Amino acid sequence: MKKKGDVFLYHQYKEGWIEAISGCMFAGKTEELIRRIHVLSFAKKRIKVFKPQVDNRYSETEIVSHAGMHIPCLVVKEAKEILEYVDEDDEVIAIDEAQFFDEEIVDICEYLADLGKRVMIAGLDTDFRGEPFGVMPQLLTKAEFVSKLTAVCARCGAPATRTQRLVNGKPAAFDDPVIMIGAKDSYEPRCRHCHEVMDRPRHYSLKKHEKEE
Ligand code: ZN
């Protein structure tokens, strides 16, 4: 005999939460976000997709993964602009490149999740130095679900968790500006041990213990 509650067996959570997809560059974050959007659009969910405007030289209106998947999105200058586009009956709010948003994105994601919306964010958790990236630590803390994806280390093939920045082919320095005019920047995924940051300030050393006779 079927009870009414049975249908909800796999729905222990009330609608409305934040789920985060993080990791280094080339880990497939956007790909995973697009995959989830596809699944939910087959389920006829009302979805809005956003990304921040990082570069205003040209207007992009799609989120695009490295593997070439793409999906239309709304491009906004600042986090609170998202609220101008979200309707009451939207069920899913997807946000790509979340690391580039201003701090207000955290409260806005919380607000939307409290309203009962499924908020899906994807973003780089660390910058090229391996340091926390912008608002990502707060978003990862507030999220109910976190998927940390890895890429493949370009040096040794181990799971990669860091983004290696190369300026004119050499590892970037800790204090290098994010944008260096005239320099050729490139990025590749690396594991902790292959990730190189020149001039990283670090002042620890292990004590040498004398062996007692
Ligand atoms: Zn490696």
Outline the fold blueprint.
Blueprint: E1 17-23, H1 29-42, E2 47-52, E3 62-64, E4 70-72, E5 74-76, H2 82-85, E6 92-95, H3 104-114, E7 118-124, H4 136-142, E8 145-149, E9 151-152, E10 159-160, E11 162-167, E12 170-171, E13 185-190
Parallel strand pairs: 1-7, 1-8, 2-5, 2-6, 6-7
Antiparallel strand pairs: 3-4, 9-10, 11-12, 11-13
Bound molecules: zinc ion.
Task: Write a structural description.
The structure is a single chain. By secondary structure, the chain is an alpha/beta fold. It has a domain at 15-149: 3-Layer(aba) Sandwich (Rossmann fold), CATH 3.40.50.300. The chain is built from 4 helices and 13 strands. The strands form 4 sheets. Strands 5-2-6-7-1-8 form a 6-stranded parallel β-sheet, sandwiched between helices. A 3-stranded antiparallel β-sheet has the order 12-11-13, with no helix packed on it. Strands 3-4 form a two-stranded antiparallel sheet. The longest helix is centred in the N-terminal third of the chain and has 14 residues, at 29-42. The radius of gyration is 21 Å and the shape is globular. 30% of the residues are buried. The structure holds zinc ion. Residues 153, 155-156, 158, 190-191, 193-194 line the site of zinc ion.
Oligomer: single chain
Number of helical segments with 4 or more residues: 4
Q: What fold name goes in the CATH topology slot of the domain at 15-149?
A: Rossmann fold
Rg, Cα atoms, Å: 21 Å
Q: Structural class, judged by helices and strands? A: alpha/beta
Could you report the average pLDDT, rounded to the nearest whole number?
Answer: 90
Strand order of the largest sheet: 5-2-6-7-1-8
Indicate the CATH class of the domain at 15-149: Alpha Beta
Described by the principal axes of the CA atoms, the overall outline is: globular
Shape-level CATH architecture of the domain at 15-149 = 3-Layer(aba) Sandwich
Number of beta-strand segments:
13
Ends apart, CA distance between termini: 76 Å
Strand content: 25-35%
| CATH-defined superfamily of the domain at 15-149 | P-loop containing nucleotide triphosphate hydrolases
User: Any low-confidence stretches, pLDDT <50, length ≥5?
Assistant: none
Q: State the share of residues found in helices, binned by percent.
A: 10-25%
